[in-house]
Design a protein that fits this description.
Beta Polymerase, domain 2; single chain; 8 helices; 14% strand; 5-stranded mixed beta sheet
């Protein structure tokens, strides 16, 4: 009975977090607000990517962590100022941190790095200052940069189907045309056109 009670409690807590996420009051949202405030205070260029950027660009889905694009120098500056002052390393030697208040993991992506498997394919993480767009007091990667990174990750790491689904949903939510492919790196253009075709199919499934 005790085991069942623990399972029920954990399930209820997860449901509560999901509900709070869709209301914009989850621990992830609170951690993002804290992170953005700290980065701005330190005058570090950044652009949020990953699931939170997908949400900012119209496709609302849950996520349990935060991905943020910075320069290597900006990352070093953040760690020097923030570790031990509200953020802690995820583990020894990790590039990422955990928000010590909200208990949310944060992963940093370095500009110039390679999305996906790490094998060179032409697409690199851009300079955050060049692709950042502001939404509600936080800076996110632009839609084109987000789609390009998602496609590059999906193509080079086929165990990540969520990346392709995100692109399909972003096409739908933003009513992207087929010509949007011309704004993307040549490595991902064919895949964008394929997913764009899937996005044109009627869907009556709940998101």
């Amino acid at each position: 009975m005790m085991g069942k009670t623990m399972v029920d409690s954990s399930y209820t807590a997860r449901l509560e977090q999901v509900g709070r996420f869709f209301m914009g009051t989850s621990d992830v949202h609170a951690a993002l607000a804290r992170l953005a405030q700290k980065l701005d205070a330190l005058q570090i260029a950044y652009a949020v990517c990953g699931g939170m950027a997908v949400n900012a660009h119209g496709h609302v889905r849950t996520t349990t962590d935060i991905d943020v694009l910075v320069t290597p120098a900006g990352h070093a500056q953040f760690l020097a100022a923030a570790v031990g002052a509200g953020w802690v390393p995820k583990f020894a030697g990790s590039r990422g941190v955990r928000d010590a208040v909200c208990q949310v993991p944060i992963d940093f992506l370095w500009s110039g790095g390679i999305p996906g498997s790490g094998e060179p394919h032409g697409v690199v993480f851009p300079d955050p200052a060049a692709v950042a767009v502001e939404r509600s007091g936080c800076r996110y990667v632009s839609l084109a940069a987000l789609v390009e990174m998602k496609l590059a990750c999906g193509l080079s790491a086929p165990d990540r189907p969520r990346d392709f689904d995100d692109v399909i949903q972003l096409v739908r939510k933003n009513q992207l045309g087929l010509d949007f492919a011309e704004r993307l790196h040549g490595y991902v253009q064919e895949k964008f056109r394929e997913l764009w075709g899937y996005a044109q199919r009627p869907s009556d499934l709940p998101e």
